[in-house]
Each structure stands twice: as structure tokens, then as C-alpha cells.
Amino acid sequence: MIDGMLNVYKEKDFTSHDVVAKLRGILKQKKIGHTGTLDPAATGVLPVCLGRGTKLCDMIAGQDKVYEAVLLLGVTTDTQDTTGKVTARHPAVWSPEFKTALDAAAASFKGDYNQVPPMYSAIKVGGKKLYELAREGREISRKARRVHIYEIEMTGDAQYDDSAQTVRVPVRVHCSKGTYIRTLCHDIGEKMGCGGCMEALTRIRVGNFEIGSALTLAQIERMVKEQTLNSVIVPVDDMLREYPAVYIKEKDCRLIYNGNPFKAENIEKAENADACGQVRVYDFSGRFVGVYAYDVDGRQYKPVKMFL
Predict the structure, then answer these.
(1) Which of 118, 151, 211, 256 is the most exposed, having the fewest neighbouring CB atoms within 10 Å of its CB?
(2) How distant, in Å, are the alpha carbons of 20, 25, 116 from that of 124?
(3) Which residues contact 218 (CB under 8 A, 6 or more apart)?
(4) What residues contact 243, with CB distance under 8 A and at least 6 apart?
């Protein structure tokens, strides 16, 4: 079984679940999961957890993300992207004044932002997914969720379609987890008074995973046949480098093998002897065992998640 993380390039028309299902066939293992769903029409970085790496899913789900999108102004849809039904059209005419207003509208979303999730999303309300309700023609009230926009900028020239009276604007967004880019596009369009939706989306970064090193399913399949896939698997503990490492004395390793707490006197060496937060724990041979957190009251380290 392969353990670790794999940077997958999700291609268009695949769901994130499709990617996992296909990888199970390619890698011949069941224990696979992903972090951060991408809509079928979107492309880009999809970090996939393998084997013991699946225990990382909840630990790294909060990583920030960077997207490149196309904002289509002048059109509103029920899904907030161009895959949905057009619900309204209002002229959007490109001009220096329009650009100034657009820059100001986009900038107003920087920082903390209370975003109302779209009806066409997998969020569950009362045990049912919102998109299931939407397909039944129902729309319900949704609570706004706090997200954060670190940066939003135009990355190229806007394209004005005179016949349709629409404006296409390429944008790059650096945001926190849980941010819906199509909702951001919709909200910018609403602030502009002409409506808007998302025409295209590519996720170019999740945490430290960049699109330049993302692999398609076909590339992964070829590397499996060539027996070179291990060269691109990110070890589990590499995903936790923000935590200092501690190594346990050989005679005390039975403690960590059994998932028991340990004390400072059980440590052979440490990257940061004063670390009182979470740490990566290794046995005497350098094998990664798990993540522990220091308990000040008990003056010992207690297990948070074991990876043996």
C-alpha cells in the first residue's frame, strides 16, 4: 500500500469522487481520499491522500488556495456559473469608468467576507444536499459563512462582447478554505449592478501543492507501469513540517508504539527542545509515528493522531 500525498491535476468533466475512484483502480488500493472538492467543470490541483495519508485529510483541509477564474459580467445564472440556467441579463459595457468601478468592487471583498453558499453546492441542510433541493426547484435560506480573501486581481485584459454586451475578466484569487469562487463572481457582479457569474475556474495552488507539479491520471498510470511513482509521493510527515520533530529513546519507544503519552525525559533529541505545542514524533530509527501535543498540566506529550 502506498502512503502519503499525491498532487493530482483534476481534468474537466471529472468529479473529485471520479478521480479517487479511478486512482483506486490505477493504484490497486482502496484507502484513498481527497481534500478540497472541485466542481466537474473546474480543473487544477487536487491533493489526494493515500493509505495512512488519509489521516491527514482533516488536518490539512484548512490550507489556503489560489484560483484563476474568468468572471463573466452581464449574465446571472441559477448556479452562479455558465453551466446553469440564465436568470437575468444586464448590459455590461467596458470603459475606463467601468474598470475603475470593477477594481473597487473586487477590492471591497478583500479581507473577511461573509459569503452565502450557493444553492448548487454539496452543503447539507437537514440531511439533504443543497443541490438536491435546488434540482427540486426549492431555494432555502442559507447562513453566511466567514471566509477570507487574501488577494484578488485582474491577470489580463478584459474582453468586451459588443453583441452580447458582456465583459469577460480573467482574475486570480488567493483565499481561505470554504470560499466559493463562483459566489464571489456572482457577488462582484451584483455590486457592479450588471450581474455576473463564473465562466471558467482553475485551482493553481493548495497549500504547498502547485499546478506545475500536478499529474494527470494518465501520467500517474504511466508512472505506475514504469515503477517511478514513488518519486512524486509526498511522505506523510513532510506535510507536517510546521511542527518540530522529536525522537524518542530506543528503550522508551514502546510508549509511542502503543499510542501512550511520553515525557521530556523520554526524548533522545528534538528540533526544538522548548516546543510546547504539537510535534512530529519519531522512534529511535527515524520512523514517523504520529503527532503529539504537549499537555502543560500533565507535563507530558499526548497523542493527537497516530500514523503507524
Answers:
(1) 151
(2) 21, 29, 14
(3) none
(4) 275, 277, 278, 279, 280, 291
pLDDT in tens, 55-113: 988 887 788 999 999 999 999 999 999 999 999 999 999 999 999 999 999 999 999 99
Confidence (pLDDT) at 75: 97
Residue 166, burial from CB neighbour count under 10 angstroms (0-12, 13-18, 19+)? buried
| DSSP for residue 235 | P
Q: Name the residues annotated as catalytic.
A: 39
Instruction: Give me the percent of the chain exceeding a pLDDT of 70.
Output: 94
Q: Which of 123, 165, 163 is nearest to 140 (CA)?
A: 123
At 1 the three-state DSSP class reads: coil
Cβ(94)–Cβ(160) under 8 Å? yes
Could you report the per-residue pLDDT of 272-283, keeping only the tens digit for each? 756 568 999 999
CA distance 223 to 225: 5
- Distance between CA atoms of 130 and 79, rounded to whole angstroms? 11
Cα 195 to Cα 216: distance, rounded to the nearest angstrom: 35
pTM to 2 decimal places: 0.90
pLDDT of res. 118: 80
* pLDDT, average across residues 193-197: 97
Reported as type and span, the H/E element at residue 112 is strand 111-115
Please name every residue paired with 170 in a beta bridge, in sequence order, or none if there are none: 70
Q: Got the DSSP string for 123-134? A: -EETTEEHHHHH
Q: What is the 3-state secondary structure (H, E, C) of 156-207?
A: CCCEEECCCCEEEEEEEEEECCCCCHHHHHHHHHHHHCCCEEEEEEEEEEEC
Strand pairing class (278-282; 245-248): parallel
